[in-house]
Design a protein that fits this description.
nucleotide-binding, 11% strand, alpha/beta, ATP-binding, 193 residues, ATP-binding protein, Rossmann fold
């Protein structure tokens, strides 16, 4: 059963957009995928939770976290097969772990925690809260942005994940991300020669 939370081997570089709600992760994911003529892994939770909202008028509950994690990794594994350069992930299981601990139940399911820590990515882009907060059916913490940002940054530090902080305009964030991804691609190319 646990296998459904495990990353499949791939030969692409994997980067994750990571941070609180409404900080530009999806916009930047799409931009980066276009820039590299590659694919991006959307946030599975958005579709899952929008369906739940539309059908039941309910938001995320603790029992939704494992199905969300399973759907996210399934999508990532499927899309990782479509590129051998860079895979842009709008989120990952570590993000789900942070939401579980900070937002919902104060802890994390042991299976989710195990794979949130074991699954690996080449680089995380931590998105700062200097973007305007945009309301939608699923977002509900406009006044907790600083605390949520701190929770995400603390998790990256605690888990010793490689990350770069993205601040500024959409163009500035894209430029910073591209510089770092180009560096990773150069290293990969150099190693594979």
């Amino acid at each position: 059963m646990e296998e459904k939370f495990r990353q499949q081997p791939s030969n692409c570089i994997k980067v994750v957009l990571f941070g609180p709600e409404s900080t530009g992760k999806t916009t930047l994911s799409r931009q980066l995928a276009r820039h590299y003529h590659s694919v991006w892994v959307p946030e599975y939770a958005r579709e899952y939770l929008q369906d739940k909202w539309n059908n039941e008028r309910k938001t995320c509950e603790p029992q939704d976290l494992l199905p969300i994690a399973e759907g996210q990794i399934r999508l990532e594994n499927k899309l990782a097969k479509k590129t051998d350069t860079v895979l842009i992930c709008d989120t990952d299981l570590l993000e789900t772990k942070v939401y579980s601990e900070v937002y919902y139940i104060g802890s994390c399911d042991p299976i989710l925690e195990k794979y949130a820590l074991e699954n690996t990515y080449d680089l995380y882009f931590l998105t700062y809260i200097d973007t305007p907060w945009e309301a939608d059916d699923l977002r509900d913490k406009p006044n907790a942005r600083e605390a949520m940002f701190q929770a995400f940054q603390n998790e990256l530090i605690k888990c010793k994940k490689p990350y770069v902080l993205l601040k500024g305009s959409k163009a500035e964030r894209l430029d910073t991300a591209v510089k770092h991804i180009d560096e990773l691609l150069k290293e990969k190319h150099h190693v594979s020669r």
